[in-house]
Amino acid sequence: MESRRLGRTGERIPTIGMGTWRVGVYATLSEKAAQVKALRRGMELGCTLIDSAEMYADGRSEEVVAEAVGGDRKDVFLATKVSPENLHHDDVIEACSRSLRRLKTSYIDLYQVHWPNTKVPIRETMTAMEELVRDGKIRYIGVSNFSVGQTAEARAALPKSELVSNQVEYSLSSRKVEADILPYCEREKLTLIAYTPLARGNVPAAAVPQAVCRRYNLTPIQAMLNWVTRSESVAAIPKSSDIKHLEENAASVSVRFTEDEYRLFGTA
Predict the structure, then answer these.
(1) Does residue 195 carry a catalytic annotation?
(2) Does the pLDDT at position 201 exceed 90?
(3) Which residues contact 181 (CB under 8 A, 6 or more apart)?
């Protein structure tokens, strides 16, 4: 699996990880077992960046992730997110403790603010985040769905730590981040973690150049993931509980297109 540098750190994360939205939503134990099996297969394929959130399935997503990871903790880069209603200082600390219990781990690799909350000062939230780093409960600090201005404010509020990432929606059919957030991340050496990189399957087939797919023997899904992660600053976390789709995702960055070929995407 291709890897990318995380922010300005020396940490390497896989270019293709796994998102876990809807993981933890199940009606039977067999459905839960299938989710665990899929996550484990993804780990085997090198998709060892697993991203969750306390709000996913009311915390059950983190519990399923914990079951899938089991004794392989050191081989997995665990990311999760604190909800916007929990961004006051003490609430951040308590939310992190709950996530640690659900994930059955002593530390979280990347702890992210899920959404900004305009009613809570970013500095207050970041102060709590730095305390979590100091206490060894988290290793790195990230944000999600933050504007450039909010990201810059969060960075300025971290005197002792680096902000390493901003997780935002980015796909062939959702390219708003190219206007400012992606250039900012590239310039400031932050990692952009792309969620919903396959646009929930809502990308017109004509937007994916078939000639490129044929040349590299890739499916349109693989070509889209390859395109999304064409910048060294971007990693993607497609969500899939289907093992065949996970295998397809993991193989999407086995080759790289030329700059001219990348420019063909979305031109239809």
Answers:
(1) no
(2) no
(3) 147, 148, 151, 166, 168, 192
